[in-house]
């Protein structure tokens, strides 16, 4: 049975997840956080690979949002073989570093609902000088590096359940300690990804209550995102808002969203990864991207 590993590097060390299976029958085998400081990451990752007998196992790195930029642009009118060059010229003025140091990738969004609307795409830009060392760490550890993935797409890998099971689009509201975002998926297809400036620490309860100003901002961002997708794409209304946040905030955030939005709200249940549902919200925040990366690795 195939295995896959997801890895994500952070200032404290790295997180990891190991999965096994195929298709929709994928199981979370183990996961963890390694706090070791940047100087010890190479040794600790190599030790982990030895201890878990992972040499040669396919691995995907989930980059953190600080590792790259994500731009939404109109897709150039160019054939597929010329698209990389066309994209380079389209985004060169958006970068704050030399184009020669940029590693670019892209993915198209679904076609709009109105005839004649320009096709949109997301372009990912990262500094080669920053991401190449991350790839080297994985290769040197003995893992078989398949890809470097962005957080937004790693999360999408946990929303690949067939349409017959989740027929309506789904919102993911991810409120973490280092980054937060809103995404809208349907059947594994990403329609929208929007980073939000609020972090989970901004929602720390005061006198037992979550501050109302940041909650109002979150509700507004969710509503704008859902309205945009309904107007832009030929999809039905969102069926559920899936919440990933610290356990101490979950009830208050869910209640506030349900009071101010007409869409049901509940904690995320990763349908595509058996065993992940047992993780707490606090743990899910730290491990969700690497679980999605591991899901892609198989």
Short description:
The chain has 298 residues and is of the alpha/beta class. It is built from 7 helices and 13 strands. The strands form 3 sheets. Strands 3-2-1-4-8 form a 5-stranded mixed beta sheet. It has a 5-stranded mixed beta sheet with strand order 11-10-9-12-13. The protein has a 3-stranded antiparallel beta sheet with strand order 5-7-6.
Characteristic key phrases:
298 residues, alpha/beta, Dna Ligase, domain 1, five-stranded mixed beta sheet
H/E element sequence:
EEEHEEHEEHEHEEEHEHEH
Please report which band the strand proportion falls in: under 5%, 5-15%, 15-25%, 25-35%, 35-45% or over 45%: 25-35%
**Low-pLDDT residue intervals, each spanning 5 or more residues:** none
In helices, the fraction of residues equals: 25-40%
How many strand elements?
A: 13
User: Based on helices, strands and strand pairing, what is the structural class?
Assistant: alpha/beta
Strand order of the largest sheet: 3-2-1-4-8
CATH class of the domain at 161-268: Alpha Beta
| Separate helix tally | 7
- Per the principal axes of the C-alpha atoms, what is the gross shape? globular
Please give the radius of gyration in angstroms.
Answer: 19 Å
In CATH terms, what is the fold-level topology of the domain at 161-268? Nucleotidyltransferase, domain 5
As an assembly, this protein is single chain
Largest sheet: 5 strands, mixed
Distance between the termini: 10 Å
Please tell me the overall pLDDT.
90
The CATH fourth-level homologous superfamily of the domain at 161-268 = ATPase, nucleotide binding domain
Q: What CATH architecture of the domain at 161-268 would you give?
A: 2-Layer Sandwich
């Amino acid at each position: 049975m195939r295995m896959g590993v997801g890895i994500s590097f952070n200032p404290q060390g790295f997180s990891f997840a190991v999965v096994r299976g195929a298709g929709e029958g994928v199981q979370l085998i183990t996961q963890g956080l390694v706090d070791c400081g940047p100087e010890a990451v190479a040794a600790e990752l190599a030790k982990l690979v030895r201890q878990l007998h992972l040499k040669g196992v396919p691995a995907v790195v989930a980059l953190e949002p600080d590792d790259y930029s994500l731009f939404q642009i109109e897709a150039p009118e160019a054939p597929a073989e010329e698209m990389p060059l066309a994209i380079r010229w389209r985004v060169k003025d958006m970068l704050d570093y030399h184009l020669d140091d940029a590693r670019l990738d892209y993915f198209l969004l679904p076609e709009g609902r109105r005839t004649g609307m320009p096709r949109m795409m997301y372009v990912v830009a990262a500094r080669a000088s920053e991401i190449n060392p991350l790839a080297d760490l994985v290769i040197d550890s003995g893992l078989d590096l398949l890809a470097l993935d962005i957080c937004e797409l790693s999360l999408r890998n946990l929303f690949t359940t067939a349409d017959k099971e989740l027929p309506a689009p789904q919102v993911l509201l991810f409120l973490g300690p280092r980054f937060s975002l809103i995404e809208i998926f349907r059947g594994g297809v990403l329609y929208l990804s929007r980073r939000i400036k609020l972090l989970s620490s901004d929602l720390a309860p005061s006198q037992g209550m979550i501050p109302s100003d940041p909650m109002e901002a979150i509700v507004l961002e969710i509503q704008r995102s859902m309205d945009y997708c309904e107007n832009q794409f030929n999809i039905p209304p969102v069926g559920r808002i899936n919440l990933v946040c610290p356990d101490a905030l979950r009830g208050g955030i869910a209640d506030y969203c349900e009071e101010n939005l007409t869409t049901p709200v509940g904690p995320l249940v990763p349908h595509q990864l058996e065993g992940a549902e047992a993780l707490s919200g606090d743990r899910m925040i730290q491990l969700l991207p690497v679980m999605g990366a591991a899901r892609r690795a198989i």
